[in-house]
Amino acid sequence: QRNLEEKLSVKILDRTRLIMDIFAQRARTNEGKIQVELAQLQYMLTRLVGRGRELSRLGGGIGMRGPGEKQLEVDRRKILRRIRKLKNDLEKIRQRRAQQRKRRLSEMLSFALVGYTNSGKSTLLRALTHSDVFVKDQLFSTLDALVRRVYLPDFGDVLLSDTVGFIRKIPHQLIEAFRATLEEVVHSDAIIVVVDSTWKDIEPQIEAVLSTLEEIGATGKNAIFFFNKLDLLSTVQRERVVRLARQYPLSVTGSALVEEGLDYLREKMKDVALEIVHARQREESAVEQ
What we know:
With 289 residues, the protein is an alpha/beta fold. It is 52% helix and 13% strand. It is built from eleven helices and six strands. It has a six-stranded mixed β-sheet with strand order 2-3-1-4-5-6, with helices on both faces. The model is unreliable at 50-69 and 137-141 (pLDDT under 50).
């Protein structure tokens, strides 16, 4: 990569760095910016040799070098200090989020929206909750966890959260940095996997989402699959998606944008919520006995 940059006189990015640069452009809140910077520094730490020009852009003072001390060692210590500070900041955010989550979960059940990036999770959150949610047709438009209430007929309110979109082979630095945000998924009672039905090959998209759920420790939950964006498909394409959706026990086809299939999705969510409540009641009864 370094040799190519010198030969071509242009900046060369590998896949991981490109994804991190996109995340950096999307980060709007303080938490999002901290998480992205932490991921970038952890990535940079493994690629220090010959990157002196990049390191000059880091904030804060380096201090004076001792006699015979190499610049690489100074740079490494500077990055490690910054990483420790960012991790401490994220730990405080994680603890605060855990307290907020504990208060919320003591009152009602929670569902988490998960899916490949740009699959329409934020659009679905806005449609189900009728709330003001930032929506844009771009990769990783949502980096921060958003939690809203949604009413389910014949049940009541539940919580619905939206988090960062997944991708295939997501860089481990991002998984680590965004762990505080992804805990909304880990601690949810159930998940809704939002699938972009406009993809030619949908199965690899679903596999990437399920693989990421396994990596963050969010498996074993009740899952509803919402096959989204049917309004963009032809009749033949819609039939193909409907056939695929039937392979999943809890699946709904529709469109969050035009609110197609949302009533059926609410019914599925109600069924899952009732199942969770009944399971908890059986567990409490067994403990009392």
